[in-house]
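For concreteness, we quote verbatim a single protein encoded this way:
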Amino acid sequence: MTQARQTDYPIDPLFTQRWSPRAFTGEQIPEESLLALLEAARWAPSAYNAQPWRFIYARRDTPSWQPVFDNLVEFNRGWAHKAAALVVVLSHKQYTAPGAAESQPNAWHSFDTGAAWASLAFQATLSGWHAHGLGGFDANGLRASLGIPDDYAVEAVIAVGKLGDKASLPEALQARETPNTRRPLAELVADGRFDFAA
């Protein structure tokens, strides 16, 4: 990491060590290592224990890779080709409440799936990998290519890889290839009432 991130209050270093690089080495990830990241995601908090998250993974140099990679926008294909794996993140929009016989809309499916993605990202950091979540993809293309039913939202794609040399990136991206900062906590939290600047 090229710069130290500063916190307003003391927290575990894991939270500042995690970041989302684009430069990857091209090193392959063993399936067991990738499944360990997904195992961490499995244990995320979940409303009603509905566990709406689903993950479709594709390791580079396997038949699963190309349908996912081809549905990334051109900008993301420009750097994600050296990722070890791409993981499509889905959330089930329906759930069956405890004691109920029929499913109903799950208002928290995206929220809970976000918690699962964070768990994956933190486990990647602990395991010596990096995870970069991205929104630049063709959701309809992924839905068609991967057979994703309509009652699942396509939330994101995650690129997983080992940190590489930023010189491998296009010049415009090299300057951005560093852990970024965050807004001060005082801009993000309020005591008892909405009090945020636009």
About this structure: The chain has a mean pLDDT of 95. The radius of gyration is 18 Å. Residues 2 and 178 are 6 Å apart (CA to CA).
